[in-house]
Amino acid sequence: MPAVVIVGAQWGDEGKGKATDLISDRIDYVVKFNGGNNAGHTVVIGDEKYALHLLPSGILTKGVTPVISNGVVIDPEVLMEELDGLTARGIDVSKLVVSSHAHIITAYHRTLDRVTERFLGKRQIGTTGRGIGPTYADKINRVGIRVQDLFDEGILRQKVEGALESKNHLLVKIYNRRAIGVDEVVEELLSYADRLRPMVQDTALLLHRALEEGKTVLCEGGQATMLDVDHGTYPFVTSSNATSGGASTGTGIAPWRLDKIIGIVKAYTTRVGSGPFPTELDDEFGEFLRSNGHEFGTTTGRPRRCGWYDAPIARYSARINGVTDFVLTKLDVLTGLEKIPVCVAYDVEGTRVEEIPWSQSDFHHAKPVYEYFPGWSEDITGVRKFEDLPQNAQDYVLALEAISGSRISAIGVGPGRDAIVARHDLLG
Length: 428
Ligand code: GDP
Ligand code: IMO
Ligand code: MG
Prior knowledge:
This protein is of the alpha/beta class. It is built from 13 helices and 20 strands. The site of 6-O-phosphoryl inosine monophosphate has 23 residues, from helix 4.
């Protein structure tokens, strides 16, 4: 099994962290390939709960080498804080490897993220305010700061000066904020250099060699398909490629080596931030999903918007990512519902459409067409075998499998590490 990818199939928070943790003991390297500390992955091991943002979830498994690759944007202060936090809890973080090519989030990226959101007013994206968008914008504009720049003060100063020249005009003249000094940024970044230096490598080379030696590499995506900058609900997206293609560009692992693509999909749908969401519920059922599923952001604490399962989105994700296996999470949250609606198609201005419309305006106006499945009331959190699930729960899973574009190989029935019903070997 050479390289495996885990991606979110909806709008994030599907349980990617738990899925990574689930297979990490059979993996040699776990690589975060996109995004930054906008992500929030919760992993529950026994009585311990870990919230990971910038670090790949595989860091919790002994023996795994965690890697932050070139596609990621790194806030060095957050990195150090997260490493210290895990160390204090007895986790060995000494094996972490960081790409020399990854881009750095600086104070001006964080400031710009917040002021541009404020200026957007009603049209705001609802970003996490972590500086993600402005950092990727600088990368594409070729004025970004990379990890390797922290080890050459002259180059770093030149690049920060170049970046701040235009940004300070923007900050002062347009956004009415104070100018940011070159010295303060350079000094802050240099203060992380000594600690960062031993972690830095050519991670594409490291991973290539590992794969050549027959080691197993897991690429763990942050965010999700519908938040992907190319394939998501643009402009209400993040600024990176969260789909499986991003695992290749974001790591330097050749596409042909990625032969297992695991899509994580919730048994219902959630979204944080603005943008279209056809199955969103504003009623007591939305509240039921939010409170039963503890749907509050791991990163920002914001209540997540909640709605029913959307099969066209799952099919879209299966196609875009080439999903070989789905992990269906949080089935336990649906326990107690008399009937469970599933969106099987959309009604767009009176026309039934089976797939996500290519026009964003049509998607904004898409009304879900529901099919209804009978619910169950039995507690399923202790179930470990598919046949032991209540018949209606089995039927619900089989119905989703039939309309979602790929097989469902594992089912989450609780937050804990072992709360899982396995159907097919995820790495087989
Ligand atoms: P990620 O960003 O995709 O890693 O997901 P998050 O960690 O942000 O959100 C998923 C939440 O659901 C976390 O609090 C998990 O502990 C929890 N979780 C994951 N799988 C299950 C499941 O099968 N059942 C329940 N009840 N909770 C789950
Ligand atoms: P994980 O990895 C859910 C959303 C934000 C906002 C949009 C852009 O935990 O699934 P950004 O700060 O990235 O520029 O915000 O993307 N968003 C997420 N939503 N889960 C995430 O990560 C997210 N990361 C970003 O809410 O709508
Ligand atoms: Mg999350």
